[in-house]
From TrEMBL:
A Pfam cross-reference name: ParD_antitoxin
Residue ranges of coiled coil: none
Taxonomic placement: Bacteria, Pseudomonadati, Pseudomonadota, Gammaproteobacteria, Cellvibrionales
InterPro entries: ParD, ParD_sf
UniProt organism field: Seongchinamella sediminis
Protein name per Swiss-Prot or TrEMBL: Antitoxin ParD1/3/4
Length: 65
């Protein structure tokens, strides 16, 4: 990190720290979204509406169209 400002990518160490914090924050938001998506997928898989659902059958049907 100390060498980053010297490479021309950042003008100062504080810019490096700000960028690291921004990236960390984005990563945390991504993780939360993925956890929520996984939870929703789990609920969808347990739904009685999907009892007779087959992904293979759906793919075959779409391929035949």
């Amino acid at each position: 990190m100390r060498n980053s400002p010297c490479t021309g990518l950042y003008n100062s160490s504080s810019e490096v720290v700000r960028e690291a914090l921004r990236l960390w924050s984005e990563q945390q938001q991504y993780k939360k979204k993925m956890e929520l998506l996984r939870a929703k997928l789990e609920l969808a898989e347990q739904s009685p509406l999907l009892d007779n659902f087959s992904m293979d059958d759906l793919i075959k049907e779409l391929d035949s169209e």
